[in-house]
Write a structure and sequence with these properties.
The chain has 1 helix and 16 strands. The chain has a 4-stranded antiparallel β-sheet with strand order 1-7-3-4, with no helix packed on it. Strands 8-9-14-11 form a 4-stranded antiparallel β-sheet, with no helix packed on it. Strands 2-6-5 form a 3-stranded antiparallel β-sheet, covered by helices on one side. It comes from Cetraspora pellucida.
């Protein structure tokens, strides 16, 4: 019921001047970003560290004014993060890698779990009529501009606690590889066709035996020598049907 997501986005400065790029990307509001890395021209890697917001912004601005390269990742809204990439040289390529963890949604009626990878922001806040936008979304990008030569690739490796009964994606055409390394509880999903558009989210629905059973996950941190435990309980209610009389009083 937990997903670790690694998003890798490639950007190239096609201008003849040094630029500062600012872009936003959506996540689930319960997601927690745990790693941030930038790779410049495939040679230099910069890893992010967590700092207090005002201090981080000040250090970023100082680095930009000094002509140095700098990267700043900040939570703008509960479900929208903003990344600022400073002083990208002409024709320079930057790859942004962001890792976050999130809890998967569980549908108790169909006994399935749902994984959603957001690809656009504007559609989540309505159409691009300024008067219809809520005030907090006024500074969000209104459209997604994608280079025709760019493409979206997705690879999902799923490890369940029991055997898998069905895998489907209502949003995209997928290819599924079952029994990874001979394990019937593991599968891999990729896109079956090249995608060059980002107008809808990627959705994956998985049904597995025993999703309604209690589960516990334990993770050990060797640095702090501590354990983290997640316990999931799925309640069941056996209610006997009873005949009920309902009286509606309408006051005109």
């Amino acid at each position: 019921m937990i997903a670790e997501v690694i998003i890798s986005q490639t950007y190239t400065n096609v201008e003849n001047d040094t630029i500062e790029a600012i872009y936003k990307f959506p996540t689930h509001e319960a997601a927690a970003i745990c790693a941030f890395e930038a790779e410049i021209d495939g040679k230099k890697k910069v890893k992010g560290v967590v700092k207090e917001t005002q201090k981080a912004v000040k250090e970023y601005n100082t680095a930009i004014q000094g002509g140095h390269g700098a990267f700043l990742l900040n939570g703008q809204l509960p479900d929208v993060f903003e990344c600022m990439v400073g002083n990208i040289l002409p024709k320079q390529t930057v790859v942004i890698n962001i890792t976050y963890v999130t809890e998967l949604k569980h549908d108790a009626e169909t006994e399935t779990i749902r994984f959603v990878l957001p690809t656009s922001i504007a559609s989540r806040y309505g159409r691009y009529y300024p008067s219809e936008f809520p005030s907090f979304a006024s500074n969000l990008p209104l459209v997604n501009t994608v280079n025709p030569t760019s493409n979206l690739s997705i690879s999902v490796t799923c490890r369940m606690t029991s055997y898998i009964t069905s895998i489907e994606s209502p949003s995209h055409y997928i290819s599924t590889e079952l029994n990874i390394n001979g394990n019937s509880k593991t599968f891999r999903v990729t896109l079956s066709e090249q995608t060059t558009y980002l107008e809808k989210d990627f959705i994956l629905v998985v049904k597995s035996h025993g999703l309604d059973q209690p589960r516990a996950f334990i993770e050990y941190d060797p640095v702090t020598e501590t354990n983290c435990v997640m316990l999931t309980l799925v309640p069941k209610f056996a209610i006997n049907p009873t005949l009920t009389e309902l009286i509606f009083v309408v006051d005109r």
